[in-house]
C-alpha cells in the first residue's frame, strides 16, 4: 500500500508539472506569445471561419486563374505569419499589430483581383445577409415578447440595446487594425455585456423563463444534429 501511495503521488506531481509546462509554453516569462501559443490561436481561428464566408466565395464564381491567385495570396500570408511566430523577440502587442497588417494586406490583394461584377456580388451578398439578420432579429423579438410577456417599455429598451450592440459589432468587424483573434475576443466580450444588460431589463421570472427556453432550444438543436449524423 505504501509503495502504491508513493507511485500515485509521483504520478500526480508529473501530471501537475506537465500542465504547468503547457501553460508556460503559451507565453514566455515576459508575457510574449510563444510559437506554440500563437499557433494555437491561429489554428483555432481558422477552424472557426464563418460558414457564410465560404458561401460568398462560391457565389463569386472565381476563374481558375483567380483561384490560383487566391491560393498564392493565402500561402504568402501563412508563410509570413509563420515567420512572425518564429520571432521569439516579438511582444504580443507587436505580434497582433503586425498580424493585423498582414490580414489587411491579404484582404486588399484579394479585392484587387476581383472584377467589378464580382465586387458588386460581394457587396450585394453582404447587404442581403445584413437584411436577413435584421428580419431574424425582429422575429426573435416578437417571439420573446410573446414568450416572456414583455411590456412595451421593456421591448423599447431591448431594441435600443440591440441597436447599440449591432453598431459596436459592425465597428469591431470593420476595424482593420484588429487581428481576427482580437475581433473574436471583443465580440465575445460584447456578447457577454449584452447578456448582462438583459438582467437590468427583465424581471427575475422572465430571466428564468428565458433561460428555460434557451436550454430547450439547445436540446432541440442537439437532437437534430444527432439525428442528422445517425
List the helices and strands and how they pair.
Elements: H1 2-26, H2 35-47, H3 51-59, H4 64-86, H5 92-112, H6 116-148, H7 152-173, H8 180-198, H9 204-229
Helix pairs in contact: 4-5, 7-8
Q: In which range does the helix fraction lie?
A: over 70%
Proportion of residues in β-strands: under 5%
Number of domains: 3
Question: How are helices and strands ordered from N to C?
Answer: HHHHHHHHH
Indicate the radius of gyration in whole angstroms: 24 Å
- Total DSSP E strands: 0
3D shape: globular
The low-confidence parts are: 1-48
Structural class estimated from helices and strands: mainly alpha
The average pLDDT score comes to: 79
Tally of separate helices: 9
Task: Specify the biggest β-sheet.
Answer: none
Distance between the termini: 47 Å
Give a description of the structure.
The protein is mainly α and 230 residues long. It has three domains: 52-149, no CATH class; 153-198; 201-230. It is 83% helix and 0% strand. The chain is built from nine helices and no strands. It has helices at residues 2-26, 35-47, 51-59, 64-86, 92-112, 116-148, 152-173, 180-198, 204-229. Helix 4 (64-86) runs antiparallel to helix 5 (92-112) and helix 7 (152-173) packs antiparallel against helix 8 (180-198). It is globular, with a radius of gyration of 24 Å. 4% of the residues are buried. Keywords: Coiled coil, Periplasm, Signal. Residues 1-20 form the signal peptide. Belongs to the CpxP/Spy family.
Tags for this entry?
single chain; coiled coil; 83% helix; globular; 230 residues; mainly alpha; disordered N terminus
Amino acid at each position: 500500500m505504501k509503495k502504491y501511495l508513493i507511485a500515485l503521488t509521483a504520478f500526480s506531481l508529473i501530471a501537475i508539472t506537465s500542465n504547468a509546462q503547457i501553460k508556460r509554453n503559451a507565453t514566455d516569462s515576459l508575457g510574449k506569445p510563444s510559437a506554440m501559443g500563437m499557433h494555437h490561436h491561429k489554428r483555432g481561428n481558422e477552424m472557426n471561419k464563418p460558414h457564410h464566408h465560404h458561401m460568398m466565395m462560391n457565389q463569386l464564381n472565381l476563374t481558375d486563374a483567380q483561384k490560383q491567385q487566391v491560393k498564392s495570396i493565402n500561402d504568402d500570408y501563412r508563410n509570413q505569419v509563420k515567420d512572425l511566430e518564429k520571432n521569439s523577440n516579438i511582444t504580443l502587442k507587436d505580434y497582433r499589430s503586425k498580424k493585423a497588417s498582414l490580414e489587411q494586406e491579404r484582404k486588399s490583394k484579394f479585392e484587387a483581383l476581383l472584377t467589378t461584377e464580382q465586387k458588386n456580388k460581394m457587396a450585394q451578398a453582404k447587404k442581403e445577409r445584413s437584411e436577413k439578420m435584421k428580419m431574424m432579429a425582429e422575429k426573435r423579438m416578437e417571439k420573446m415578447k410573446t414568450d416572456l410577456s414583455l411590456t412595451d417599455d421593456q421591448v423599447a429598451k431591448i431594441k435600443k440595446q440591440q441597436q447599440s450592440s449591432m453598431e459596436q459589432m459592425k465597428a469591431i468587424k470593420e476595424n482593420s487594425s484588429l487581428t481576427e483573434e482580437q475581433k473574436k475576443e471583443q465580440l465575445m466580450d460584447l456578447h457577454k455585456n449584452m447578456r448582462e444588460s438583459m438582467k437590468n431589463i427583465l424581471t427575475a421570472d422572465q430571466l428564468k423563463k428565458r433561460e428555460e427556453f434557451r436550454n430547450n432550444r439547445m436540446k432541440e438543436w442537439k437532437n437534430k444534429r444527432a439525428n442528422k449524423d445517425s
